[in-house]
Amino acid sequence: MKKFILVLLCLFFVIPPQTTEAEEPKELQIHFIDVGQADSILIRTPQGKNILIDAGGKKSAVKLMNYLRAFGITTFDAVIATHPHHDHIGGMSAILENFTVKAFYMPDISHYTHAFNDLYTTVKKEGIMIFKAKAGNKIDVEPGVKINIIAPLKGNYDHLNDYSYVLKVIHNENSFLLMADAGEQSETELLEKKVNVKADVIKIGHHGADTSSTLPFLKKVNPDTAVISTGNRIKQGYPSKAVINRLHYLKIPTYRSDLLGTIVAHSDGHNITFTYGKSEQEHQEEKE
Ligand SMILES: [Zn+2]
């Protein structure tokens, strides 16, 4: 039976997606793309808009671009870099060079690493303007779909992760809280400022590390489902047992990309369903 299920899962992603830009999805989809120990999230809207949040690390850039191109995507209406850590912006130069990007968002913080320098070089070369959006700003994507930027709430933090954009994606009655790598400090500020963090789905902060996802914060979000984007690095604490235990204690069903591959949330504006699966190629790579 297990084998049968596995074959079904494989089939799901072996068949190249048939949707093209001409055949727009009627539902909103949020793809938590399996880029290993990193983040990359694709939003496809009912009217056919495409938004990319983070681009994983440099080594998964080709895999990421293949995933995006399989949908016929050539243009992004918005690309958002949540914060300048390599596992979020390492693949961003490849995206900016190979796709048309109508608007590029990034928080106002520098980080002197190869990944950050590469990104800035590409931004200059391609003549891309950076929107340094702040908490309180929102992106009106189309009727029924908006993205609220709810954090960072301050301009100075000890940890780079706390500069992460925390985004609330709203599709009619449904809401998704995308935490990037925001940590305990950012979570505490959101609670103190009484920002509305309630959401149907939470993308857990910082790959499930114990530096994020405090119990009071999870209780306030009160999600029906959690998603963790992480690689196979449980020994290094991603995801941490403490966070898994908290989600278990709160009875929040959790989808993990290290176990399931790419996870896709499908929203009709009222209900949310999930699909997931690793490709045949990924299963082969794991066996080798
Ligand atoms: Zn990260």
Give the structure's gist in a few sentences.
With 288 residues, this protein is of the alpha/beta class.
What does this structure look like?
- This protein is of the alpha/beta class and 288 residues long.
- The chain has one domain (24-279): Metallo-beta-lactamase, Chain A (4-Layer Sandwich).
- It is 29% helix and 24% strand.
- The chain has an eight-stranded mixed sheet. Strands 9-10-11-12-13-14-15 form a seven-stranded mixed sheet.
- Helix 5 (114-126) links the parallel strand 7 (104-105) and strand 8 (130-131).
- The model is unreliable at 1-22 (pLDDT under 50).
- The structure holds zinc ion.
Bound molecules: zinc ion
What number of domains?
A: 1
Number of strands: 17
CATH class: Alpha Beta
The shape, in one word, is globular
Helical content stands at: 25-40%
Strand order of the largest sheet: 8-7-5-3-2-1-16-17
Task: Supply the helix-strand structural class.
Answer: alpha/beta
The topology string of helices and strands comes to HEEEHEEHHEEHEEEEEHEHEHEHEEH
Overall pLDDT, averaged?
89
How is the biggest beta sheet arranged? 8 strands, mixed
CATH fold-level assignment:
Metallo-beta-lactamase, Chain A
Q: What is the rounded Rg?
A: 18 Å
CATH architecture: 4-Layer Sandwich
Proportion in β-strands: 15-25%
Pfam family, one: Lactamase_B
Organism: Pullulanibacillus pueri
Keywords: Signal
Domain Metallo-beta-lactamase: 37-232
